[in-house]
Amino acid sequence: MKTLGTLGERETIRLIEKIIKSDATIGPGDDCAAIDLGDRFLLVTTDMMVTKAHIPKGMGPYDIGWSIVAVNLSDIAAMGGSPLGVVTAIGITRGHPIDFIEQMADGMNDCARRFNTSIVGGDTKEHEDLVLCGTAIGEVSKSGILLRRGAKAGDLIAVTGTLGRAGAGYHSIKRNLGLKEAEDSLKRPWPRIREGIVLSRSGIVTSCMDISDGLSTSIFELSRNSGMTYEVDYAKIPKAKEVDMAFHDLERQKDLVLNFGDDFELLFTIKREEEENLLKLSKECGCPFTVIGKVTSGEENILIDGGKREKLENLGYEHFRTRQ
Amino acid sequence: MKTLGTLGERETIRLIEKIIKSDATIGPGDDCAAIDLGDRFLLVTTDMMVTKAHIPKGMGPYDIGWSIVAVNLSDIAAMGGSPLGVVTAIGITRGHPIDFIEQMADGMNDCARRFNTSIVGGDTKEHEDLVLCGTAIGEVSKSGILLRRGAKAGDLIAVTGTLGRAGAGYHSIKRNLGLKEAEDSLKRPWPRIREGIVLSRSGIVTSCMDISDGLSTSIFELSRNSGMTYEVDYAKIPKAKEVDMAFHDLERQKDLVLNFGDDFELLFTIKREEEENLLKLSKECGCPFTVIGKVTSGEENILIDGGKREKLENLGYEHFRTRQ
Lengths: 324, 324
Fold this sequence. Notes:
By secondary structure, chain A is of the alpha+beta class. The first copy, chain A, has two domains: 4-141, CATH 3.30.1330.10; 156-311, PurM-like C-terminal domain (Phosphoribosyl-aminoimidazole Synthetase, Chain A, domain 2, Alpha-Beta Complex), CATH 3.90.650. Chain A has twelve helices and twelve strands. A seven-stranded mixed beta sheet of chain A has the order 7-9-6-10-8-11-12, with helices on both faces.
């Protein structure tokens, strides 16, 4: 009997996508679904967090509540949208303290408010384990929607913020390194809502997604969607300062930056001639926007490191599959 | 340490609602949240199904998929809305057969298509148990929105369809009674989308909700929301034909009809003078709409049974609370 363990998460999702017939303008496969409202698109995205795989040690109930809202808002940001509201469903045991759910609700509420939206509804059910499901709704103009597809050879690849910080935070918690800011950014992801809106309005972006599953996986996703290949220059990637503090070993640093994920930055492509405009937008947002490579029409995705060209490996996190 | 087990589901939800500050026109506490889109309301609702409490024996993967979509569409129906799309998040073990998720996706897809909408996106995560979360999005005109509040003394109470069928189906599966139609209606709930739209457009409805948690609990909900009391005439309640076949005992029949829930019919109130119009709408829909009592400004909710007036008890299903 073939089980999901033999398929892996991505293949399982593709299997479901083959069965489901979506009427939406943008259906499964992008950060959000986009439904045509006539004058604009409605954006919808849902994300489930289960205790075992998704809730790192050191996260308290407030952080958990914050995160389930933040990860969904990050998908709205990746499409260039403005949030309209969030609903959250909570499966929780009857043994959980009342305090726990109060703090979790506080975290949800604070995250939503921080990004100019609110928790508009939800569901609470008894379960044997803690499981959270958030759904965010947003809106975006028809011309401003940012998709995973659309990049063309010659476009530049860019990211918001810095990479590797959430991974450094993970190792800091694990090994008691005391990298407080990095730990906080793992525990309370910061969706790039404002940056997404600015990028959407700029008209310079040709494709976009968030980097929650790691940079390498996200590059492969953009590549699959555009049919193009991507060349990333490792030296140009803006590394979080905590990456050096988490590991001296350069290969382990590289793994954090390329593969760990959970950074919730935006990965996007812009038209080649717009690099200068990008820097202006970066100042406007008060957030670094950094060009890290270019879109090509080659054979495979490439990482340039220390002048050497190597094949970029897709090493982001995947569920289900039994690991060797 | 106080736990959720001491609070019960309803109190837990109220606790969360006190913390969450919703910006929506209609926030938590109704069947859906309603977000103002300018010319109309956007409706959003989310429902989680966990294996232990919500998936009756006899339900296959197709039924489970159908149900998670149907229960959410039922909330859209209860507000008088037309569905715009559904997203589904699935937590599932790596040991589940591939067949299982294929059939579940089929059930989701078929239910959405049957009610003129589609699954527009989702999420799939590895979990120790099967857990599903659906979120439905809909729209409704500003004047046509149906809320739990709004009934006035003198209004008539009505229901769609018949009651007790899902409960009879539950007992049929448990005791092998072979009540196929009743079993099917438990396994594949039928959201009253069409009826909700017709009622919304009619202008005769003063309040509405679905009866998923049982008639008695739903009456108490409408009562809490309107500040009115409700008098239900047991003899007038349209009982499903299978109720008699599931139990000879009249008290047990009454319990099925009043308290079991899972019927996903609509419970609503109309202006007193509109009873005749209601029957016209019923014909238009091809679905029975039956007046079962009236709204009063008394002391408590009343059940009239065999000419005797008794206090209506709120005996619907509640999670968390330890049962005596």
